[in-house]
Amino acid sequence: MMRKLLEGKKGIVTGVVNHRSIAWEIARHLAEEGAEIGFTYRRERKWVEKLAGSIGADFIEPCDVQDDQQIRQVCDKFAERFGGIDFIVHAAAYADGEELQAGVINTSRDGFLRTLDVTAYSIVPFCHYARPYFRPGASVLALSYLGSNRVCAGYNVLGIAKSALETTCKYLAADLGPEQVRVNVISAGPIRTLAAFGLPNFKEMVEKRANQSPLRRNVTQEDVAKAALYLMSDLASGTTGEVMYVDAGYNIMGTWADSEVGSAMVQG
Ligand SMILES: NC(=O)c1ccc[n+]([C@@H]2O[C@H](COP(=O)([O-])OP(=O)(O)OC[C@H]3O[C@@H](n4cnc5c(N)ncnc54)[C@H](O)[C@@H]3O)[C@@H](O)[C@H]2O)c1
């Protein structure tokens, strides 16, 4: 029988709030390939418990990523139960809706710092407290968005935080690389999730994007989960510090023809 891609691997998935969460689809894919998964939640245990139960997982711990003690406890408890850590999926992000509406020019110090803390800094204590338990070949994954390096309407302070997150992951990749721990980022296209619905213009952006992307569609949670599976598995053994776009190719575009003209050109 063929060995599953993540047979024997055990790790922590953050950021599941409901069945639409990107982290949930990632967890499902990792579990299908043999991984054992521990979940964290911020407030919503009931939903996470239900979803985790559907893949036979029962390690479910509270973890507000702004709280170092909780992060430490999750890593300690997980390693105690599973004997080590092979992967961490970081999928937590936060920005106040009013601050997003108001634009970067009106962002408060508190709003800025909280967004940076949840969205970017929190991956540092996760890697720090997991470090003693990481097994060689371990893989850490964070989720980002194009707003990290381009101005994307409505993304505002989150874009600044994603920029910090991507750079933080590169430095973490350098710190942990000698221990054979990889740290990578997936920059996903817009997907309808709870967090995304809090973004101004999200609905309009998703509709436009489908026509403007080379693949002429938006990506799904499943597209991201398949890329995550690659990065978490030994297939990506030589890849670290990378930002991989899973966005139907949108990020390569400079200018747009309308889709009719674009298609006519391709067909000759
Ligand atoms: N949906 C998209 O269009 C999209 C695109 C690119 C990247 N992302 C990123 O994907 C990740 C997952 O988001 P999603 O779209 O699946 O939405 P989601 O709402 O399902 O998940 C966001 C998660 O962040 C968690 N969170 C917020 N503050 C937290 C805190 N203080 N402590 C612990 N957890 C906290 C929430 O509990 C929730 O589980 C985020 O990093 C997001 O920025 C999303």
Topology:
Layout: E1 10-13, H1 22-32, E2 36-41, H2 45-54, E3 59-62, H3 68-82, E4 85-90, H4 97-102, H5 109-121, H6 123-130, E5 134-144, H7 156-176, E6 182-188, H8 194-197, H9 202-212, H10 221-232, E7 243-246, H11 259-267
Parallel strand pairs: 1-2, 1-4, 2-3, 4-5, 5-6, 6-7
Verbal overview:
Helix 2 (45-54) links the parallel strand 2 (36-41) and strand 3. The protein contains 11 helices and 7 strands. The chain is globular, with a radius of gyration of 19 Å. With 268 residues, the chain is an alpha/beta fold. The model has no long low-confidence stretch (mean pLDDT 95). The structure holds nicotinamide-adenine-dinucleotide (NAD). Nicotinamide-adenine-dinucleotide binds at residues 15-17, 20-23, 42, 63-66, 91-94, 118, 143-145, 188, 190-191, 193-196. Nicotinamide-adenine-dinucleotide is lined by residues 15-17, 20-23, 42, 63-66, 91-94, 118, 143-145, 188, 190-191, 193-196. NAD(+) binds at residues 15, 21-22, 64-65, 162, 191-195. Pfam families: adh_short_C2 (PF13561). The active site is at 145 (proton acceptor), 155 (proton acceptor). This is Enoyl-[acyl-carrier-protein] reductase [NADH].
The neighbouring-strand order within the major sheet is: 3-2-1-4-5-6-7
Could you say which structural class the secondary elements and strand pairing correspond to?
Answer: alpha/beta
Q: How far do the termini sit from each other?
A: 48 Å
* Rg calc: 19 Å
Give me the count of strands.
Answer: 7
Order of helices and strands: EHEHEHEHHHEHEHHHEH
Question: Unreliable stretches, pLDDT < 50, 5 or more residues?
Answer: none
Helix content bin: 40-55%
Please, what is the CATH homologous superfamily? Answer: NAD(P)-binding Rossmann-like Domain
Principal-axis shape equals globular
Q: Label the CATH architecture.
A: 3-Layer(aba) Sandwich
**CATH T-level topology:** Rossmann fold
* Number of spatially distinct domains: 1
Largest sheet: 7 strands, parallel
CATH structural class: Alpha Beta
Rounded mean pLDDT score = 95
Number of helices: 11
The small molecules bound here are: nicotinamide-adenine-dinucleotide
> Per DSSP, what share of the residues sits in E-state strands of 2 or more residues?
15-25%
Family: Belongs to the short-chain dehydrogenases/reductases (SDR) family. FabI subfamily.
GO molecular function, one term: enoyl-[acyl-carrier-protein] reductase (NADH) activity
Pfam family, one: adh_short_C2
EC number: 1.3.1.9
